[in-house]
Amino acid sequence: MIEKLCLALVFAIQKLKHHFQAHVIRLVLRANPIKFVMSKPVLNDRLARWYLQFQQFEIVYIPQKAVKGQALADFLADHPIPDDWKLTDELLDEDTMVIEVQPPWKMYFDGATHREGAGGGVVFVTSQGEVMPYSFTLTQHCTNNVAEYQALILGLEMAVDMRQLQLHIFGDSELVINQLLGSYEVKKPELRRYYDYAQKLIGWLGNVTLQHVPRKENKKADALPTLARHKSLSTKNG
């Protein structure tokens, strides 16, 4: 249950990021999800990502107690039901029912290996055009194809966390994209587990499209692996 509260808070941050940046956020809940994450002696990848997001904003926890009941009582006191008010089971005119369908998010991914190390990057573009870049380093040496798969998987895991069930994915790895589309066979055993896990995540999301783009058109994510690698090197040297 507490992890569901954490996930809900992460989703709210992604959707209302500008509000979180501009205001002190008062979190009214029965349990404190931020304390739950911080109390873990060892953080897995998902909890680590949540922790980093929580630390970016000023979030004040307030125990729920009677807040919910008092708010309902105040609302009813301010909005009394008229004596002549009649119940109706008629549906509203269908012309007044409007559902706004948001376009899918876009996700660009890229991974690369170099003599000094390896890194990856993911860039989300929201329905409103907001750009959300992420970069990471790989602690073990690997092939370019493995780095590409790991970048894709990181992005898919984040999309699952954010409940982004509609996603257009773009990558410059012809091998990875075509393997996931079924056009190429997965021949190398070391890629099989990454392929299987990526397909599982895509299945959880539901409405996902994959498209190969030339490297020159994947500029949104192309620079992130290099950035992540340089950050890792500067950390080691420092």
TrEMBL record:
GO terms for molecular function: nucleic acid binding; RNA-directed DNA polymerase activity; RNA-DNA hybrid ribonuclease activity. Gene3D superfamilies: Ribonuclease H-like superfamily/Ribonuclease H (3.30.420.10). The keyword Nucleotidyltransferase applies. InterPro entries: RNaseH-like_sf, RNaseH_domain, RNaseH_sf, RT_RNaseH. Keywords: Endonuclease, Hydrolase, Nuclease, Nucleotidyltransferase, RNA-directed DNA polymerase, Transferase. The keyword Nucleotidyltransferase applies. Residues 101-230 form the RNase H type-1 domain. Residues 216-238 are annotated as: Disordered. Residues 228-238 have a biased composition (Basic residues). Pfam families: RT_RNaseH, RVT_3. This is RNase H type-1 domain-containing protein. It comes from Nicotiana tabacum. The lineage of its organism: Eukaryota, Viridiplantae, Streptophyta, Embryophyta, Tracheophyta. The gene is LOC107761586.
